[in-house]
Write a structure and sequence with these properties.
Oligomer: single chain
CATH superfamily of the largest domain: Exopolyphosphatase. Domain 2
Strand content: 5-15%
Distance between the termini: 43 Å
Length: 529
């Protein structure tokens, strides 16, 4: 694994920021400077890769397509490799969500780019798209005005309802311009019957959401990304009218049917790279307009990559949506805030003392041990870095959310919730690591569920120690104590003289914890000075 610097402190404001969207059809890079009230874009780069074409019937990524994508990423690496990690965000979307062997590809991508690649959920993708579109439009005079944002990507279609910069309803459907074109127009022939079949397939996907979207309603509809921009421009070329309308879509479809084949499309608005995926995108757009009864849809240049930049800058300027997500979960599941914060404070103190040493011990002394924050146990990272500290704090704040379901096995309930909920701002790997922290914070240590990641195991150990020390739920501060990894799989916990004698239940809890940790194997020694 390449040596990545994902734990660099938040961005260097004197350097540009970069966002890279590894989409199912194209890879998009945007580079910009932050001028406080606006982003100054200094570079854009797009390459059509059609990653979705490489998914085989068993959802493996075809070697030829993977090689094509990695060649593109090696070129893009020239633009981003030298930027501080706090200034770069790279995400994979639908195809990399579906691919069974995506981790191998991601490792190679990270080597090519020199930065971490995150896989985001469909709804997180939708949130970021809405953010990008909202920032690209003029501010609404009426804050109550509702927007519908639609983005047809290569492998998925996102539909979002929201007001101003806040999305309220988000869905990601498994249909995209590449997958739909490959299925219904495999040989490039453009026939009315095929458009009908593709539209019907898209309507089936929309059937489960169309009623609730129509019931919520909206004031303006906005289309985002290349497919809808291309459709808009093609309709404009054919009719002279702006906006995507039912009549305009019908006109474009009839024109394509008359053309007969993808290779014979001669619209100036449709380039050679767009043409092969246009019919599938058009079928989806027609189905969306029909199902949601959209009269007219404008288009926006803003999309996922712009949303990534604005989300990244929010983190830099202490407006991290993940913090809001954690706070919302604490309220929703009635977490004892005072207790959770005390545990978070204690585990931060423990982390400061052990740094990377504990993970090195667990990994047999390897400084390149796999780490937290990646896609699996093979992902690298530093236990002493800000990413690990954030994850550990969030784990401490949320470790009791399962109690709102039942006290018995509440750590398992909490882990399940965090693994399966939509967590705005979190990548899939961050969400998984957070769920494992909560799942593993008490009782028997499920070492087999941690995929052999020394850093994640180490973070679980630290959280467990903090939870044990606060089991009495006292509001009084703990005494000064010392946590020292001594090597050879041992960690020593030392307290002031007589404190353990005065807290016999804590001593018993620590002795029990020592038995739990033996499966790692890790020896916990408790002493007084």
């Amino acid at each position: 694994m390449a040596a990545l610097t994902q734990n660099t402190p938040a961005g260097d404001t004197d350097r540009p920021y970069a966002a890279l969207d590894l989409g199912s059809n194209s890879f998009h890079l945007i580079v910009a400077y932050d001028h406080g009230d606006r982003l100054q874009v200094v570079d854009r780069h797009k390459e059509t890769v059609r990653l979705a074409e490489g998914l085989t019937t068993d959802n493996s990524l075809a070697p030829t397509v993977a090689a094509r994508a990695l060649a593109c990423l090696k070129r893009l690496g020239q633009r981003v490799r030298d930027l501080p990690t706090g200034n770069v965000r790279i995400v994979g979307t639908n195809t990399l969500r579906k691919a069974r062997d995506s981790l191998d590809f991601i490792e190679a991508a990270e080597r090519a780019l020199g930065h971490r690649v995150e896989i985001i959920s469909g709804r997180e993708e939708a949130r970021l798209i809405y953010l990008g579109v909202s920032h690209s439009l003029e501010p609404l005079e009426d804050s109550a005005e509702a927007r519908l944002v639609v983005d047809i990507g290569g492998g998925s279609t996102e539909l979002i309802l929201g007001r101003q910069f806040q999305p309220h309803l988000m869905e990601s459907l498994y249909m995209g311009c590449v997958s739909m074109s490959t299925t219904y127009f495999p040989d490039g022939r453009l026939e009315a019957a095929r458009f009908g079949q593709a539209r019907n397939a898209a309507r089936q996907e929309l059937e489960v959401i169309e009623e609730i979207y129509r019931a919520r309603g909206w004031d303006t509809a906005i289309g985002a990304s290349g497919t809808l921009l291309a459709i808009h421009d093609a309709i404009l070329e054919l009719t002279g009218e702006r906006g995507i309308t039912p009549d305009g879509l019908t006109t474009l479809e009839r024109h394509l049917v008359q053309t007969g084949h993808i290779d014979d499309i001669e619209l100036e608005s449709i380039d050679a790279e767009r043409a092969p995926v246009l019919p599938g995108g058009l079928a989806i757009a027609s189905a969306v307009v029909d199902a949601l009864r959209v009269d007219s849809m404008a288009v926006s240049d803003g999309a996922l990559r712009e949303g990534l930049l604005h989300d990244l800058l929010g983190r830099v300027h202490a407006h991290d949506i993940r913090e809001t997500t954690v706070a919302d979960l604490m309220r929703r599941y009635h977490v004892d805030t005072g207790h959770a914060r005390r545990v978070a404070t204690t585990v931060a103190k423990i982390l400061e003392q052990v740094s990377w040493d504990l993970a090195e011990n667990l990994a047999g002394g390897s400084p390149n041990a796999p780490g937290v924050g990646g896609n699996d146990a093979r992902s690298s990272g530093s236990l002493s870095g800000p990413a690990a500290a954030r994850l550990l704090r969030w784990g401490a704040l949320l470790h009791e959310i399962g109690m709102d379901i039942a006290h018995s096995q509440y750590h398992k309930h909490g882990g399940y919730l965090l693994e399966n909920m939509d967590l705005p701002g979190f990548s899939r790997s961050e969400q998984h690591n957070l769920s494992m922290l909560v799942r593993c914070h008490r009782r028997k240590f499920p070492i087999e569920e941690l995929n052999g990641s020394p850093s994640l195991i180490a973070l679980c150990v630290l959280l467990r120690l903090a939870v044990v020390l606060h089991r009495g739920r006292s509001e009084y501060a703990l005494p000064a104590f010392w946590v020292v990894p001594t090597g050879d799989g041992e960690i020593r916990l030392t307290f002031p003289k007589r404190w353990l004698e005065e807290h016999p239940l804590t001593r018993l809890d620590l002795e029990q914890e020592s038995e739990y940790l033996a499966v790692i194997p890790l020896k916990l020694t408790v002493a007084s000075i």
